[in-house]
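Hey, I was hoping to borrow your eyes for a little while. No rush at all, and the record is pasted right below:
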Amino acid sequence: MADATSQTAHQLDPTPPSRPDRDDGHIKYVAHLPGAAEDALKAFIGRPFAGWQDRAEHRDGDPLALLVRFEAPSGESVEVELGSPNGGRAFFAGDHITLSYRSTAALPDPMANEGARALIEAVKQRVAAQDAQEQPVVALREAMQRWRTFSPVGDWMYRQSSPQEALIRLGFRCNQDCWFCWQGRDWPEPPAEYYFKWLDAFAAEGREQVTFSGGEPTLHKALPELVARAKALGMRSWLQTNAIQLSKPKILQRLVDAGVAGLFVSYHSHDPEVSDRMTRAPGTHGRTRAGVEASLAAGLHVQINCVVERENHDHLAAHAADLIERFVKPFPDNPLKLVAYSHPCEYYDEDVWARSVVSLEHVQPQLVAALKLLTEHGVTVEGIGTCGFPPCLLADEPQLLRWLVPEDQHAMDTAGRIYAEACDACAVKQRCMGLRKEYMDLMGDAGVRPFATEP
């Protein structure tokens, strides 16, 4: 993620797509911002000479720190800089913007070259005219700020889909700070109107279910309205949530009334201390538990997700037993439906990832014990999945196996998956998604047990 104070230059896209508002038929927001910034710059500075390129540089967070390169009629390139007034020397210093020119190897003194001097003077006149109006400077600053703000993210982070269902991520704000999360804590979100546009588009394509995620989706004020819109469009709504907000009766009831069908709840340990360490949000484990209980009592379909890493891998069986006692037995008419154990991708903090990864061979005994216990109590389990473990961890328990053909999965789920050399001899390689590359980089093929024959 770019540091706002770095000197790193980011090239604007000189060839924005022909349909800048759409991507594969979907309305997009982030991907059109470089083109919009390019258009804003051209509208601001005009085109006194053809063949010019431009790029924006991060400099002390100034959205107007722009370097523009022109090709002069004589063939030399001429570089000028725009910036906010800062009290320094400038070729032109207006009330809202400054203009300077740069020396280059080809033109050590651009003003000594007739063509370069004419270009610089033309640009100066244009910039002075724009500065006198102020609004053009505001428009340029806003376009550049939007582009820079969203440079760490892409539209795929906010929406993705499979043939049956869709996911819309309502930004990245969260009331926990899970160290195993892959998201940046200060990544931005698009205007809420885009969530509604994407939802309408998914419904028009025949998606039957939409999952609202985040960040933490229950913190977003548009969530109830989005759920209600999905219901009106004939779509089932699910939430990927930590359920903290759902422990509040009014919030839960509002979402139930809007039409939420089910929850996929992050619940990583039965031990409050372990859970609170993993989520870096002391006191929230009990609120998550209360949110799950309230949601089950309200009749919602609830599934649990447990991310498995060094902090909790050695008590998965106890975790499963706790789920049965808290979320299955007390709710005979609406028990917990499914539990998934997930193998995390690389964390946002790579150092924490390196300290937290545990070898698959150490995960295997507790994972098997947890899955078997839950199955015995009628709970559907997933230890293998797009976020799960390779099938060979369950080789001794064929009733727990699940096969996933990579070609049938979304590209987002297969990206970064690779196979160990040992996998070449596996009888079911074609029905396995492999291992995460970041795991292999740290652990090699530890825990891989190729199938000699197809079970």
The CA atoms of residues 69 and 79 lie 4 Å apart.
